[in-house]
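Quick start: read one record
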Amino acid sequence: MKTPLKAIALLSFLFCSLTASAGDLTWTVPDTWEDLKQSSSMRLATLAVKEDKSLLVKVSRFPGHVGGELANVNRWRGQLGLKGIKSADLEKELTVIETKAGKAKLLDISNNGKQMLAVMLKEEKYTYFFKLMGTSDKVGKQKEALIELTKSIK
């Protein structure tokens, strides 16, 4: 049985809309998010939550290790009005997520009704960041979607 050309075109469109890439990485965009196809010199991609387009996952890549995990975690903690932590406490703050591109680390922090989810993935030449920030009631609902996206990175 022959597959109608329209069906092939539709399947092709659906497949393309479910995956995204930046730099050397690709990942699967959750069904509840969309790729806005926006980038800049510092941002590789912007993903939006379909039900609330004010919730953006900003994807960026920087050369090297960009100061290291502790410096990034403390910078992000400062953005939410939290004090920095010591290196001995870093491991407790991060959740390791296995990907085909290596081990990613997820930071989930909140303060005064705001929450940030940030994923760091170090490669040989670059560090990639996936960051979502907003009110705790909205961001918290997106954590599992961000984890699934992270697991799909290759």
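Strands lie at 19-22, 25-28, 33-35, 43-49, 52-63, 94-99, 102-111, 114-122, 126-135.
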